[in-house]
Amino acid sequence: MQAIGSLAVPVLRYSFGIINWHKEEIQKLDRKTRKILTTYGQHHPRADIDRLYVPRKEGG
Q1: Taking a C-beta distance cutoff of 8 angstroms, is the pair 38, 45 a contact?
Q2: What is the pLDDT of residues 6-58, one digit of tens each?
Q3: How far is CA 36 from the centre of its chain?
Q4: Strand, coil or helix: what is 42?
């Protein structure tokens, strides 16, 4: 999880200012990310998706 936060997120964050992402592309990337997290046991397959986007202080 820490590797995702330190490596993948900055790359995506940087590209949001340069690349004109469509909503469908972002949703597809989100699904792929959740699938990888589930595959490696970092996210339960039936867990609440919205919880991924809630700050940890609020239960995310």
Answers
A1: yes
A2: 667 777 778 877 888 898 998 898 888 888 888 888 888 888 878 777 877 88
A3: 10
A4: coil
The contacts of residue 38 (CB under 8 Å, 6+ apart) are 44, 45
φ/ψ of 34, rounded to 5, equals: -65, -35
| Cα distance between residue 26 and residue 32, in whole Å | 10
Contact yes or no for 60/52 (Cβ under 8 A): yes
- Classified as helix, coil or strand, 19 is coil
Distance separating alpha carbons of residues 10 and 51, to the nearest angstrom: 21
